Structure of ABC transporter ATP-binding protein:
Amino acid sequence: MADITVANLHKRFDRFVAVKNSTFTINDGEFFVLLGPSGCGKTTTLRMIAGLELPTSGQIKIEGDDVSFLRASQRDIAFVFQMFALYPHMNVRQNISFPLKCQGVARAEIKERVAEVADILRIEHLLDSPVGGLSSGDKQRVSLGRAIIRKPQAFLMDEPLGALDSEFRHLMCSELKELHNRMGATTVYVTHDQLEAMSMADKIMVMNHSVIEQVGAPQFIYDFPNTIFVAKFLGEPSMNIIEFEGSVAQGADSVCINSIKIAVARIVEGVQTKKLALGVRPEHVSLVEFSHLKGMIDAVEYLGTTQVLTINSMIGKLKARVDSHIDVERGQQVYLQLNPEHTSVFDRETDQVIMNTRYEEAYHAQA
Ligand code: ATP
């Protein structure tokens, strides 16, 4: 398996920039997810790593070798598509063994490796079946089998579960992750589904409008979003973003919104801008007996173990995720507390987070 390093990767289609100066590293054996909304440049990035698209400029190295302008067939990687791309006139065994046949591998070895892959994917019983009658999940397993059998340096997957219904998707997510854990193969995986990304990735790279917003472990970017975009893109419901005008000086441990003082994690560097935003995830907004921050419940959404409350508060609309056993109803007045250790203050002019002591510690711990 291999590590993949990408430096200043740039792709233009005529005047349109699809990928802008991307620099990142995928470590050997990592499950690396490219996440972002439609059109942000995920697939183009993946296709350039695969050699299916050539970069306008920049460099891609696989295991130290510069492959930036090599054709796909000259790179030792396997691609798994959403639409399976199986050969309909071949059965499962023939589909899986096809890449080895093309490489001229001996019959006995092909037989052995097909058996090995079928065992990994638990599809031994399907080997002699035609692919036409298979379920979507089994078709995707066969498609994975055809990729695995080559023992490539890396697997590249473009929304491979996109064609499956949600229940099956969930099952295949766990299967893929388990498969990855067993094989330890470097995998680059494209999705626009944040839950899929969070549940499978070792590392997520969030993209938006052709640029990288943030790269990090799922928990890290969930807890410490670099930008307002990442804060809103991850989480269901997403982070509360309360826009306000004011200032934050170095060392400040509170902000003032609509004359209400809100405690925040201690700011490391002050900023000049007056356009700010306070971010706090719904699970860090709690109901308390008394505080200076009051609100009125506008909606209650029951979700089993928790409930999400929409609250019109003195600093703006807030969502709170609280235990579903707490007895609340629409129209009720409540007092709120935001956990200062889990707040983020953003500069709305740059869209970037303003560094606080918790972020700083976490960045150093991750580095
Ligand atoms: P999706 O999830 O919808 O596939 P994505 O993040 O994977 O989105 P890309 O497919 O990488 O996005 O496309 C990024 C942008 O580049 C899009 O606006 C797309 O229209 C454009 N684009 C992609 N391929 C081409 C091409 N061959 N010619 C012109 N524009 C292209």
About this structure: The mean pLDDT is 92. The first strand starts at residue 4 and ends at 13. The chain has two domains: 4-223, 236-366.
